[in-house]
């Protein structure tokens, strides 16, 4: 296990952390551990930029786009050199 020391923490943050820990029935240290764990787990590769963008704008609804029809047959490119033949 590692140790982490955080210097220059505002008193208001310490007070809020103490109250939050008390409401969860644990120590300030355990509460800070849980907060850090949640923050790190929520920013893993599974939740990439696209996922974050989608979750931010999902409530606005989607847009249905009409896709153009694709040609059923496509001729291969002609690479014959007719000028030098």
What's this model, at a glance?
By secondary structure, the chain is an all-alpha fold.
Describe the structure.
It contains three helices and no strands. The longest helix has 14 residues, at 11-24. The termini are far apart. The mean pLDDT is 86. The protein has 85 residues and is mostly helical. The relative contact order is 0.05. The chain has a domain at 8-42. It is elongated, with a radius of gyration of 29 Å. Helix 1 (11-24) crosses helix 2.
List the keywords.
85 residues, mainly alpha, 3 helices, 0% strand
Describe the secondary-structure layout.
Elements: H1 11-24, H2 28-41, H3 49-57
Oligomer: single chain
Low-confidence stretches: none
Question: What structural category do the secondary elements indicate?
Answer: mainly alpha
What is the H/E string? HHH
Amount of beta strand: under 5%
- N-to-C CA distance: 76 Å
Helix tally equals 3
**What form results from the Cα inertia axes?**
elongated
- What is the count of β-strands? 0
Helicity, in percent?
Answer: 40-55%
Mean pLDDT: 86
The major sheet is characterized as: none
The rounded Rg comes to 29 Å
